[in-house]
Design goal:
Blueprint lengths: L12 E4 L2 H10 L5 E5 L9 H12 L2 E4 L13 H14 L3 E5 L2 E4 L2 E7 L5 H18 L4 E3 L14 H12 L2 E5 H11 L3 H6 L6 E6 L2 E3 L4 E3 L7 H14 L4 E3 L8 H19 L1
Parallel strand pairs: 1-2, 1-12, 2-3, 3-4, 4-7, 7-8, 8-9, 9-12
Antiparallel strand pairs: 5-6, 10-11
Helix pairs in contact: 1-2, 4-5, 8-9
Length: 278
């Protein structure tokens, strides 16, 4: 099962769908190309919030983005989770399905965080096998997102970009490339973000995430609670120069602003992307 970006490259610029804005979106039908929802916020319910999502779905393409798959764990997959997820996918018929390249739980203990992995051949083989099982279960390819990290493993003998590229190539999955996370990790782990970008096959990229971070002095912290920093915007432009235009999403999860602020960030993304290829 192979992901191809051919069917999504023209999707345009989207926003993360957050509950404070849903009624406004339904009432005004703003000019947004698509929305992304957090899978776990909707997959377990068929109540009012789900019905509103289905109403939004009538007017806009929807991508679903999960935080609990734990593709890197050594636990067996929770079959109830996988089936509930598949049922949700079948109902929503999303344009893309994604989660994170990380682990979140082991031995039935949940961290409620996106934890880093060692970048080794052994881990690649482990994750590729798990992706194969997941993609066969839901009968479609998935995308995996590069996560922000604050520690690394001494066992790692590959770069992060080689690690994620090998996984995508061998498993057939796509990549959800978070530009801010690359910027954060480049600062935290002292690597060249341009080398990272040029190490990713553009054809494996399903879409970009753009978000904000906070400078903690000795490290950068990915918050999803602010506008993109100027240096991260510059990295986005350099990425687009390498990959061409890809679907792009403004992701804002904390201190959620007005809908107009999100639309302003979306407009900046459109302008910066066009400038990059001019």
């Amino acid at each position: 099962m192979i992901f191809t970006s051919d069917n999504t490259n023209k999707l345009g610029h989207g926003l993360g769908l957050r509950s404070p804005h849903i009624d406004y979106i339904l009432a005004t039908k703003p000019m947004v190309d698509w929305f992304e929802v957090v899978t776990e916020n909707y997959m377990h319910t068929r109540g009012n919030s789900f019905q509103k999502l289905m109403s939004v779905r009538k007017d806009y393409p929807i991508a679903i983005h999960g935080v609990s798959l734990s593709i890197g764990s050594t636990d067996e997959f929770d079959q109830n989770y996988l089936q509930t997820w598949k049922n949700f996918i079948d109902l929503i018929e999303p344009v893309m399905v994604s989660d994170h390249l990380c682990w979140t739980h082991v031995n039935a203990h949940h961290s409620h965080d996106l934890l880093p992995l060692p970048y080794t051949e052994e881990v690649i083989k482990h994750i590729v096998d798990r992706i194969d099982a997941v993609q066969n279960h839901i009968a479609r390819p998935i995308l995996l997102e590069n996560a922000s990290t604050y520690i690394s493993f001494k066992e790692s003998d590959l770069t992060e970009w080689t690690f994620i590229s090998e996984i995508a190539q061998r498993s057939g999955c796509g990549i959800l490339l978070d530009i801010n996370n690359i910027f954060v990790n480049a600062h935290n782990h002292q690597f060249d973000p341009i080398e990272y970008i040029h190490g990713i096959d553009p054809h494996k990229i399903g879409y970009f995430h753009l978000a904000g971070h906070f400078d903690k002095g000795t490290y950068l912290f990915d918050t999803h609670g602010d506008r993109m920093a100027e240096q991260a915007w510059q990295l986005y432009e350099k990425t687009v120069q390498h990959t061409g235009l890809k679907p792009t999403l403004i992701e804002w999860d904390n201190d959620i602003p007005s809908f107009d602020t999100l639309m302003d960030e979306r407009s900046i993304a459109i302008q910066r992307g066009q400038h990059a290829i001019a």
